[in-house]
Write a structure and sequence with these properties.
about 375 residues; alpha/beta; 7-stranded mixed sheet; globular
Length: about 375
């Protein structure tokens, strides 16, 4: 390709400091080094985690940074030694890599990787340098993916090749939000047919949990949110009941216990608030109930709970990207999407040109969007 081996100048949305709007800038994107891939992004979506980063609440992140982590694109060029993808391939960059060599990657029950952000920050590529510069300054990567840029460079083991038939402006959601929620039900909770479930928070992740619970055969799916505008979408995706905590003068966990007799079999929190996590834990039955946290708390947060909530047998589990081993699973999820086994398109409420990225965040913060897709 004409651009192979050369620096590419392109647009990116740069966060210069926490709490400030994103700034559309011209950035330079260096060519890929050995075992790296440079991707031309076609579409990216906006996730609540990106807002955590912009507010300065994401652990270990560094500014200036290019956010974004739900994207899809086409390989532009590859560095030396790359064998799994080639220029022209459709791909999804992965915010949890799969190096294939660490003890987590080698464990069939784990989907984490010791090269991921919680183990060591992904603000720079593995050689501890950035591929982005702007106005003479080094710009940090976000989880290596930084999909709010037209071109990105990422390690080969954080790239999944997908079916050539996949519509990139739709399957970009599978890079985080849909996969996290759907997998939280299918993989992490292992929801059983005929069971009862409660989902706290009906954003993109929470609604994907609803879809996962339905696919797993749950007989009762109770959706919980203070924003009643989201109830119609939740019912369309499989919720049997929708309730707002503001409609009751007692704790929502008491309401759920009354509705179900002893509490739900599975509860999920997809907001990222300590009080809703405690309520979700308390709302599942005290003997065999499983609570899965999918929401992300601000960096440095702590939760205090009554230990009796766990002593009688409840389980509290966390999920990272829904328990999928990403490089192995994303191509399969894309194939399932193409086979219409689920309809993640129903989560897309807005499609905007990339230049309107700040407007997309305003819609998210106002509770008016589920997922906004940005097109380059």
């Amino acid at each position: 390709m004409a651009t192979s081996g050369k620096v590419i100048r392109c647009r990116a949305a740069v966060a210069w400091a926490p709490g400030k709007p994103l700034s559309i800038e011209e950035v330079e994107v260096a060519p890929p080094k050995a075992r790296e891939v440079r991707i031309k992004l076609v579409a990216t979506s906006i996730c609540r985690t990106d807002d955590h980063l912009l507010q300065g609440c994401f652990p270990n992140a560094e500014f200036p940074v290019i956010p974004g982590h739900e994207g899809a694109g086409i390989v532009e060029s590859v560095g030396e030694g790359v064998t799994s993808v080639k220029p022209g391939d459709k791909v999804i960059p992965l915010c949890i890599p799969q190096c294939g060599e660490c003890s987590f990657c080698l464990n069939p029950e784990s989907n984490f990787c010791q090269k991921s952000h919680i183990c060591e920050p992904q603000n720079l590529l593995p050689d501890k340098t950035s591929r982005f510069t702007c106005k003479g300054k080094q710009i940090h990567h976000f989880l290596w993916v930084s999909t709010f840029a037209e071109y990105i460079v990422i390690p080969e083991y954080a790239v999944a090749k997908i079916d050539t038939a996949a519509p990139l402006d739709k399957v970009c959601l599978l890079g985080c939000g849909f996969s996290t929620g759907y997998g939280a039900a299918i993989n992490t909770a292992k929801v059983k047919p005929g069971s009862t479930c409660a989902i706290f928070g009906l954003g993109g992740v929470g609604l994907s949990v609803v879809m996962g619970c339905k696919a797993a055969g749950a007989s009762r799916i109770i959706a919980v949110d203070i924003n009643k505008d989201k109830f119609a979408k939740a019912k369309e995706l499989g919720a049997t009941d929708c309730i707002s905590p503001r409609d009751f003068n007692k704790p929502i966990q008491d309401v759920l216990i009354e509705m179900t007799g002893q509490g739900v079999d599975y509860s999920f929190e997809a907001i990222g608030l300590a009080e809703t996590m405690i309520a979700a834990l308390a709302s599942c039955n005290m003997s065999t109930g499983i609570f899965v946290m999918a929401g992300e708390l601000d960096a440095g947060s702590e939760i205090s709970i009554d230990p009796m909530l766990l002593l009688t047998g409840r389980t509290w589990k966390g999920t990272a990207l829904g328990g999928w081993k990403m490089r192995d699973s994303i191509p399969k999820l894309v194939s399932s999407y193409l086979e219409k086994k689920f309809n993640s398109d129903l989560l897309i409420t807005h499609t905007l040109p990339f230049a309107k990225v700040n407007e997309g965040f305003e819609l998210l913060r106002a509770g008016k969007s589920i997922r906004s897709i940005l097109l380059f």
